[in-house]
Give the backbone structure.
Amino acid sequence: MTIKKLWAEDKPALAFYALSIFGILVCLLTELEKYLPSIEAICGGPNSGCSTVRKSDYSSLFGISLGIWGIASYIVWMAVYKIRPPLAGLFGGMLMGGEIYFAYLQFSVIQAICVLCMTQFTVVLLLNVLLFATAYQSGKKTVWRLAFVAMTIVAFAGFYFPQKARAQQAVATDASITSWGNPKSDYRMEIFTDYECSHCKNFEPVVEQIMKGYPEIYIIFRDFIIQGHKLSPMATAYAGSVAYYEGKDAYIKTRMELFEKQENLFDLLKARLPMMREDKVMEKAVDEKIRKDKERADAVNISGTPTSVLTRKGETVKVIGGFLPFDEIKKDLDKLVGRPAK
């Protein structure tokens, strides 16, 4: 059927297909934003809400990016519409529930708004309004519309409650031997560093200020060993052994010393490493800690140091890449713990 004929015979169908194709284009732009700086610039650059959302834990589902999921969903949606419009309405309810959940994440959890994502939300909303008005036969409109509302609620709950349960479980169980503060706190700051990274050394005084000014935040120090830094693995192993044998206070002191003496790190480790005990249990614990740090870094798409990940009740609020002065990072920390802005 040509567009002209479709316009003459079924305007709602033409509108549905046109909006769906526009939605596919938005999803495609969302995917290309990862690779094309020009698209990222349109969204506001590397520090924009789009970039923050893209780097969050919620930018993929089962390892597949949401942009790809979106393209596939539109294709299936159009196919279902062609077969039977009322069923497309139910499918749309499922998608609407997912979009509402992701909008909730942006406003309440990530606390950053992606322009492309909200455009996508608007397209799905308009398509569902169109289906709500035109897809159902006159005798069964009420039943189909109630089914649509039910499907939307079920889809939202299907995303929301499992994620909430996983987040709460992570808060209850995830602790690190290289950390500071109360592991039961709702507020966490994960700091990824490398002992040979000069920016990480500059960030350490800021970390000390955070520890003093925000005792309610549980800080997890995670190791992100940069390829080519030959001393970092040894420094990481040594600091981990201190944490294992002597506890967190000794670890904090050792960590600061390793950064303070970064320019003479080889001499420091040469003197300290022979003092480490040969203990398979300790080595296994430190290796496991490093493995978990690597998994966590991959999960939040970390590519450099220092990087800080702020979480509230197990849900990622913001990923902060690079060194920031205390006065700048303080704004995000105040928002994290709910302190009034000054």
